[in-house]
Structures are given as structure tokens and as C-alpha cells.
Amino acid sequence: MVKKVLVIHTWGIGDMLMFTPALQLLLHEYPQMIVDFLIKQPAAADVVRACSQTGRIYYLEQGVNLFKQIWQLRSNGYDAVIVTSGTNHWKSGWLAFSISAPVTAADYQGIRSPLFSVQIARDEAVHRIDNNLKIAAGVIGHEPTVQFRPKFWLNEIAIRHAQEMLAQNKLNRNQIIIGIHCGCGSGQRYKMWPLENYKAVIRKLSSYKRNIVFLLFSGPQEQTFIRQLKAASPDNCFAVSQVPLPVTAALIQRCQLMLANDSGLGHVANGTGVPVISIFGPTDPVRIAPRGAQCLQIRAATECSPCHPHEPPKCRTGRTACMVSVTPELVIEAVKRNLFMDKEK
């Protein structure tokens, strides 16, 4: 019986959400299990913090402090240590092995590591959710019999704060609320759809339906983008910035639709049950897009896309041609089909 597990996660918000179906599978198989997390990027912890079976959350130390942290983790007596898919299995292997649990599980690419007791060959042709599920299946010892979708666990405080913010801006359920995240994280502007295209979408949809409002979400370094977008239609655009991620997720949950680049907030929308339209270019939607019946990816059929597994692309045109090739008209029609077509038939 697996009662106490440590999950090592060195990636970001979206990658954590792509692990949550595997996490739910483990919790379904072992209902009394407590899960601790060792996390490198602090924001990723907010995805699972409100889960009733989340125990302690640790943040990965560096240097001498890392050895002290390993000693502390060893003393916790874990039954299993699981490394989420996509992590370098050699770097994570010595860490998992040093914690000294009976079961250590991860996926691998290339040569297997002797430091894991459960190793699953990573398949780069399938979605990261599926690779995470294979790792979980290796731990429980059989194929999944129940399917789970990505999940962001919300807490009541975040939900209440979101309701208060909406009320302060006089937003209510009679309005069509569309969330937009035009950014994509620090240092990843090559994944951004041009701001002028987002402006065109806002203007066109605002003229199409009078009761549409937009929540413009931004990260710490994206507030300039939001100011530019808000100028496109100032009366029905509301900026959401410098807000904790759980409150952001609760606000997204109140949207009828989320429009985003390949970003963590697109996965947050999917994890809160909101339909999401994602605009993809250099990265591969087959592997990392929000997944589910209510998820749609829009991308241009450029011959060089996708080109970005791990490093920023060096586009031959001097710009990210695959993003520029996605027209506002394509996105506007996708939004209309998602929100209005069935209701107007």
C-alpha cells in the first residue's frame, strides 16, 4: 500500500496541470495517500495546494542547502518518489535515489537510468498527459481503468475574492465574459500572437455582441501588453494583474471562454472546466496543448512548424512566421462558433 508519496516537479504551471490526471489516478487508487511536492517554480504549487490530500510543499534548494533538504526528505519515509514527465531523468535520478524510497518512478529518453525502480520510455509523439499517466500506471502496477481530466484545485477564499473583484467592476452572469492572456511567460515572446491581432479580435467581437466583456490577464512582465489591449476597447476591457494565481484561476472559471497563446493560463482554464482556444506556432500542440473536448488549437500550416522542443526558434524570416500567419479572422470565427453558433440556430 502506497501511503506517502513525494512528487518532484521542476517545470511550470502548465506542466503541473498536465500531471494532474496522473495525480488523480494515484489518489483514486490509494484513497488514503498523502502527496508532498518538491517544486522548482513556486507558481506551480498553487495548482495542487488546495487538494485535500496535498501534504507539504517544498521548494527546491540549491548548493549546500540542497543536501540539507535531501536529508530532511529522507526522514519523511516516503513509499514512492515520482518525477513528472519531461524532466531530465539523469539529473532528477540522483535526487530521487538519494531520498531513498522503495519505489522511484520517472520516464526517460535515450538511455535508462539505474537510479529508478520504475522507468517508462518517454514517447515524444504523444501528449505529456499520457506520458505522466504511464508513469502513474507503472507505480500502481496496472493500466488505468478510470479517466481523469486536468484539474486546478480552487479554495473558497480565492473564489470569494474573485467574486468580489467581479462585483467591484459590475460584471455579472448576464454578460459574456471572455478571458484573454496575450503573453506567454518571461523570455518566450516567440510564442506570442501579435498584439494588433488581439486588438482586432476585441474590436470585432465587441461590435458583434454588446454584452461581451474581456478580462485581460497578465503576468509580472506583461502589464504593458495589457495597457495596449485595453486601449482597443476601454469600456469593456478589464485588466487582471498582480493577482495571486488561485484568484486568477477563480476569475478564469467565471469566463465563458479563454483565448490564449501557448501559456500556463490556457492550461489553467482547462483545469477549471472553461473552454479554451489556444494559438500555437513554434511549439507542438500534439504534445503540450490543453487537452479535452472543449479545447481548440489554432495554428497555421507553415512547413517549419513546430520547431521548438526545448530552445527558442530561429525563424528564417526574422520573425515567428507561424504566429503571424494566424489571422484575426480565423480566431474570431472560432470564438463565434464556440460561444454563439449553437445558440443562434
Automatic annotation (TrEMBL):
GO terms for cellular component: cytosol. The keyword Translocase does not apply. Keywords: Glycosyltransferase, Transferase. GO terms for biological process: lipopolysaccharide core region biosynthetic process. It comes from the Bacteria. SUPFAM superfamilies: UDP-Glycosyltransferase/glycogen phosphorylase (SSF53756). GO terms for molecular function: ADP-heptose-lipopolysaccharide heptosyltransferase activity. CDD domains: GT9_LPS_heptosyltransferase. The keyword Glycosyltransferase applies. PANTHER family: ADP-HEPTOSE--LPS HEPTOSYLTRANSFERASE 2, TETRAACYLDISACCHARIDE 4'-KINASE-RELATED. This is Glycosyl transferase family 9. It comes from Lucifera butyrica. The lineage of its organism: Bacteria, Bacillati, Bacillota, Negativicutes, Veillonellales.
